[in-house]
Amino acid sequence: MVPMHSGWFRRWRAPAALAAGALPALAFPAPALWWFAYVALVPWMLLLRSAPTPRRAALEGWLGGAGYILAVHHWLLPSLHVFLLPVAALVGLLWIPWALLVQRLLGGSPPAGRAACALVVVPAGWLLSEVVRSWQGLGGPWGLLGASQWQVPAALRLASVGGVWLVSLLLVAVNCALVLLVAVPSARVPAVAGVAGCALLTGAVWVGSARPAEAGGLRVAVVQPGPVPDGPDSAERRFAAGERLTRPLAGRDVDLVVWGESSVGEDLSARPDLARRLAALSAEVGAPLLVNVDARRADRPGIYKSAVLVGPAGPTGDRYDKMRLVPFGEYVPARTLLGWATSVGRAAGEDRMRGDAPVVMDLPGRPDVRVGPLVCFESAFPDMSRRLTLDGASLLVAQSATSTFQDSWAPDQHASLAALRAAENGRPMVHATLTGVSVVHGPSGERIGSALPTSARAAAVYEVPLARGTTLFVRFGAWPVAVAFAVLAAYCAAVGARALRRPAPAPTPPPSRTARG
Fold it and tell me: Which residues of 69-102 are buried (b: 16+ CB within 10 A; e: fewer)?
């Protein structure tokens, strides 16, 4: 075994931190090794606890955070190219406070009290980094650790109580306990107690939390036209492919047909011929169409991405303009400063415009159903789907397009978010894309039917169960975040009070002088 103070080990600490931070990405789709999330942070935390100084721990926390961002977002390289590196370096700074907590609380041979404190404070520190980076300007909440558990029923039940935030907290607590078990024999009692506590909490939530109460069903068709080669007529060819796949739905008694993001390339008020084609298609199928218009609006300046509901008589007037845009993909932050990103990747040449407010749409023919639309990236934000549920949505719909990243992990990662949002809100969610992966999840986050993979050009009908009632997450919001911040504030106050009580060091007497003869 190589001693940690050896020169060889010191030279390799920085790349080891970068690699250790990247490891949790394996828990997310496409690898989807969900179980790995319970141990993935252990190598990084072992490295941080052995850091000789807080400055070194801060450096390795930063490098590990950058590695995490690079690994979870590596599929952005075709769009951002080298610009992804400074983005990762910037966002990676958010893990420095967590790294300092790991070094301070887990370093050396912590007594039982400090080890028990670490099991609470270290997860809270991790959540701080997740919450801050969830701000849209820093990239949004893509790749939150708790989201790796999208296919685990017990984790989805936890999400219904405290959102993805509660799942992240428990995952980090388990990793922290494993570090204590591996590296601190004297702290094995609190470590085992911590793992047992996480298991007991999960069991209590599983037994005690209310399941969504069934309230009928809905037949929803998802239309996925597949990739369309770029060209001057690509928007028209995509529209025609959607029409062709939708027509066979006639006679199948569907209640709603959902097209993916950017499925219509012209504003319908400026192209009444397209509006008439959609209206005729709705009449033929016998169901309204929820399409997505990506175009310059005729009634106001700028390009908008909008969910538009169309019935047999044409657009119903229900329209939602996307509010949270993808950094660089749909707008360039601080374009005057960072506009050069358009010359090295596929950053937006013109900023899209933002919508003003969420919209809940009444579904024609089904007075008991209201639809809450989101567009693409917005399905990553827990607060947006919660707002729609509070406003009365009984069905959540995300219209997406990940064709730019067709052969990467992005389509699977994006589709997995629908399970979390469905479980958090106790509402079914439809994730409809142009090119896959399209998927439907029920009110508990369970998969409904088969997903449409990236290789599919198809229209699929899903029997979607509806639910009534509210989850604890909808009722109380992101309360685990408030608890985590309170824990961190209490810890900082305790450390500060201890520092104030510590007696000041005695002054050093001046050096004595001796006479020379």
Answer: bbbbbebbbebbeebbeebbeebbbbbbbbbbbb
Number of H helices, E strands in the chain: 16, 11
pTM score, whole prediction: 0.92
Judge contact between 256 and 292, C-beta under 8 A: no
Read out DSSP for 66-118? HHHHHHHTGGGHHHHGGGHHHHHHHHHGGGHHHHHHHHHHHSS---HHHHHHH
Among 23, 16, 42, CA closest to 176: 42
Which residues of the chain fall below pLDDT 50? 1-2, 517
Instruction: Give the C-alpha separation, 128 to 340, whole Å.
Output: 31
The answer for residues whose C-beta is within 8 angstroms of residue 173's C-beta and 6 or more apart is 119, 120, 122, 123, 194, 197, 198
Residue 479: which residues within 8 A CB-CB, separation 6 or more? 162
Determine contact, residues 165/128, Cβ cutoff 8 Å.
Answer: no
C-alpha–C-alpha distance, residues 324 and 344, integer Å: 24
CA distance 474 to 469: 10
Please check whether residue 48 is in contact with residue 1, taking contact to mean a CB–CB distance below 8 angstroms. no
- Residue whose tokens read 């949505």: 393
Closest alpha carbon to 350 in 371, 330, 380, 321: 330
Contact call for residues 45 and 69 (beta carbons, < 8 A): no
Residues 484 and 128 sit within 8 Å (Cβ to Cβ): yes
pLDDT number for residue 517: 42
Residue 19 makes CB contacts below 8 A (sequence gap 6+) with: 67
CA distance 292 to 257: 12
